[in-house]
Design goal:
The protein is of the alpha/beta class and about 675 residues long. Helices cover about 30% and strands about 20% of the residues. It contains 21 helices and 24 strands. The radius of gyration is 25 Å and the shape is globular.
Length: about 675
């Protein structure tokens, strides 16, 4: 695990020179900060700059090399971000990642097209390991691809150095030291990505690893003391690792009477969560004020734009939270209600909100996913984090928000917590979102069925019955075949010959991240006539979102073969009964995981309540009144990318089956499902 360090400011940095550093040009990638972190892990200084930074500025400041991040735009779009094409001709080695590769290819006369095939997930690609970038690697490597546009015609002077099936995954002009990868070498899911970055930095760009480090804790403390002075700070404590580390830092940096620690029970906490938080933090010597604000949150509202298309400053009042189904609106109401409740707390203590700072444990990934300008100038909103709403941004602009962890990733926060002396049970807790269980209830008034519903279901039928489908040609069969390599086709034939599977759309929506953009779309359910063969199911979960771009998540449905997929939903809102059902399911699943000893092997395990009632006889017109639970096991180190835990591999199958059997005993539960999706295309949380 990466030690918690910061970078020593040397004399060249102080006088504005960036001699020997790497310029990371930000095109709006969700992983832009991860590139920065990976370069610094290799002890090379890096700076994130706007994509439009002029080439002469990069040259004059002495940067050694350039890395261009991915991004959500299309290079051929009229509103594509502007950049200086001279960055490729000033003699600096350049590595273009994803969008960066497509920019490079276009500048030198190549073409880029939107393909019918999307790639979102981990794929095995063929590499030319004689290329300097891939020296020392195997001829096949596993990498993360997440894109809809692909290089069509390769630019003059460049050669193809990596391929994913028939899609170009890497180009190079060795003479000019220009390299492009369609995949993301900076993320953990690209297994040997660090070796590729090492080759680029040291073998190609001749960087030196002399960027020394010293303790980051003192830097955070200095920042807090400088900003706060003698003022008071209100810190909102959820009891999670981020807010607890933030509070411990504040306690160390300031006098104890300056720090007002408040735990707001918003009504969406886990079973006994507030009590546990209070006991744990009191043991740490942190004076905690607990506020029960469930009623305030259930009835909370916020102001929203008149519509998504309306660009005027006009606003409308949202519905109350307990009647809201849109996940973004739910998050915004919760974030703004936290601030309102915090101000009420200050009023009760006779403190002026204008004179008190608000402290939060906001992390770098939160800001990237919320498209905060602090983290990235061009990133797309994937989801609004409750600690980065419009109201929080206004306070931030006024200089009233303290966020000492804003440059940290989750594993770095844990290491900082250990350094601060926090107990392991707090430091290693699974993350729990500030909005709590509210974003783990898929709220809906009506089923989500768009005009492509029937056609997508037909494609899913062809995929799961592929061995039979190839014998009776169909127009959609060619579409399926065009999306997969020969090797994948062979594997799909084998799986569908051996296993009796069925896949279909579920009439609900979840949030995903596809091609650096937010998606809010279908879930695909897979059911089987025999016991689940997890390796085959994981293969299908990687394949299906590539072929059906409107699907960002794939789940396995436990129980007998589903004969009639649900076509409607159980109307679901954030009511006390609905939350009690989820609270019990969450408690059961996490108790079993803890008892199994596998909690530390899983990074996070959201338990989600969906408005789906299976196994109703359509002839009897039985109304939809039950709901189904999803268990979402997630393994990651940086929370920007990750994979679902495979039963029988990362977690014992009997542990998962015990969760399923115990959850099914809860009144009102129809079925239990298991989320098979990696990130991308699915986010960690469902909303």
């Amino acid at each position: 695990m990466l030690a918690v360090n910061t970078l020593e400011i040397n004399s060249s940095e102080q006088n504005g020179s960036c001699e020997g550093a790497v310029a990371i040009l930000d095109a709006g990638a969700q992983y832009g900060k991860v590139i920065d972190r990976r370069v610094r892990e290799l002890c090379v200084r890096s700076e994130i700059l706007p994509l439009e930074t002029p080439a002469f500025a990069i040259r004059e400041q002495g940067y050694r090399a350039i890395i261009i991040s991915g991004g959500p735009a299309s290079v051929y779009a009229e509103d594509a971000p502007w950049f200086d094409p001279a960055i490729f001709t000033i003699g600096k080695p350049v590595l273009g990642i994803c969008y960066g590769m497509q920019m490079m290819n276009k500048v030198f006369g190549g073409t880029v097209h939107k393909k019918s095939v999307r790639e979102d997930g981990v794929f095995s690609i063929a590499l030319d390991n004689t290329c300097s970038l891939f020296r020392g690697l195997q001829k096949e490597e596993l990498v993360l691809l997440t894109h809809g546009d692909s290089v069509d015609k390769v630019a003059d002077g460049f050669k193809v150095v990596a391929q994913s099936g028939n899609i170009i995954a890497g180009i190079a002009n060795e003479q000019k030291k220009l390299y492009g990868t369609q995949f993301h070498p900076e993320v953990d899911l690209t297994e040997r990505g660090m070796e590729m970055l090492r080759n680029f930095l040291f073998e190609i760009a001749a960087c030196t690893s002399n960027f020394t480090v010293h303790n980051r804790q003192q830097v955070c403390i200095n920042e807090i003391q400088e900003k706060v002075g003698a003022s008071k700070v209100l810190v909102l404590l959820s009891g999670g690792v981020d807010s607890t580390v933030c509070t411990a830092l504040l306690n160390k940096a300031l006098n104890q009477e300056q720090v007002i620690a408040v735990h707001i029970d918003n009504g969406f906490m886990r079973k006994k969560e507030s009590q546990t938080v209070e006991e744990a933090l009191t043991k740490l010597g942190i004076k905690l004020k607990v506020v029960n604000a469930a009623h305030t949150f259930y009835n909370g509202t916020t102001t929203l734009p008149i519509s998504e298309e309306d660009r005027t400053p006009r606003k409308r009042i949202s519905k109350t939270l307990n009647m809201t189904t849109n996940p973004e609106e739910k998050r915004k109401i919760i974030g703004d209600t936290f601030v309102k409740v915090a101000n009420e707390v200050l009023g009760e203590m006779n403190l002026n909100p204008e004179e008190v700072f608000l402290a939060q444990g906001t992390l770098r990934p939160d800001l990237i996913e919320s498209a905060s300008h602090i983290a990235s100038g061009k990133a797309e909103v994937i989801k609004t984090h409750h600690n980065d709403t419009e109201l929080i941004r206004k306070l931030r602009d006024e200089g009233k928000v303290i966020e000492p962890l804003k440059d940290f990733h989750k594993d770095e926060v844990r290491a900082l917590g250990r350094e601060l002396g926090l107990p392991e049970e707090i430091v290693s807790r699974h993350p729990f979102p500030g909005p709590g269980l509210s974003i783990r209830v898929i709220c809906a008034e009506e089923p989500y069925i768009c005009k492509d519903f029937a056609e997508t279901n037909n494609i899913l039928k062809i995929i799961t019955d592929f061995s039979a489908s190839v014998k009776k040609p169909h127009a959609l069969l060619q579409r399926v075949k065009s999306c997969i390599s020969d090797e994948e086709e062979e594997k799909l034939m084998q799986i569908t010959s051996l296993h009796s599977l069925n896949a279909f759309l579920l009439p609900i929506k979840t949030v995903g991240v596809q091609g650096d953009c937010r998606s809010y779309s279908y879930v695909c359910g897979v059911t089987s006539k025999e016991s689940p063969h997890w390796e085959s199911l994981m293969f299908l979960a990687r394949l299906i979102p590539r072929m059906c771009h409107t699907i960002n998540r794939v789940v396995y449905i436990f129980g007998s073969h589903v004969k009639e997929p649900p076509a409607d939903i159980t109307p679901t809102f954030l009511t006390t009964g609905v939350l009690s059902t989820l609270r019990q399911a969450d408690f059961v699943a996490h108790s079993i995981l803890r008892e199994s000893g596998y909690s530390s092997k899983i990074s996070q395990m959201p338990v989600i309540l969906t408005p789906l009632h299976f196994d109703r006889d359509p002839l009897q017109k039985q109304p939809s009144c039950r709901r189904s639970v999803v268990v979402r096991t997630f393994i990651t180190s940086d929370f920007m990318t990750g994979i679902a835990a495979m039963p029988g591999n990362h977690i014992p199958e009997e542990v998962v089956l015990k969760m399923v059997n115990e959850i099914k005993k809860i009144p009102g539960i129809s079925r239990v499902m298991y989320d098979l999706t990696s990130k991308p295309p699915g986010t960690t949380e469902w909303e």
